[in-house]
């Protein structure tokens, strides 16, 4: 029951879910495709609680999605990314919000690295419906 949980756990889950939701909405707004989330909370080797993976059709869209995610999460949740990588290579941009890590990839690197298969023990969910 939630009433028996420590308040810090509830606050963390609420903060994570706000960030998670803002990321999914930002990806959809910029027309990211094949959006998948992986719940890694039950995997002891995992580096975060969630991965969100999506595709961009070209390097310009890749950058636009990444920029908008960071801007929107900052605006809606007051959180800045802890770290981001891959902006120079323009193939795969990783944005690390500590408990939620976003992978924005072009189709070829996504097929090659197959993150969903690498983390196949995680509970996966698709987020390809339209924005409400």
What does the model show?
The chain is an alpha+beta fold. The protein is built from four helices and six strands. The chain has a six-stranded mixed beta sheet with strand order 3-4-5-2-1-6. Strand 3 and strand 4 (92-96) form a beta hairpin. The model is unreliable at 1-10 (pLDDT under 50).
Question: Which descriptors apply to this entry?
Answer:
alpha+beta; disordered N terminus; six-stranded mixed β-sheet; Beta Polymerase, domain 2
Number of helices: 4
- Percentage of helical residues? 40-55%
Q: Would you tell me which CATH topology applies?
A: Beta Polymerase, domain 2
Give the overall average pLDDT: 89
CATH architecture name = 2-Layer Sandwich
Fourth-level CATH superfamily? Beta Polymerase, domain 2
Structural category is: alpha+beta
Major sheet characteristics: 6 strands, mixed
- Rg over C-alpha atoms, rounded to the nearest angstrom: 15 Å
Order of helices and strands: HEEHEEEHHE
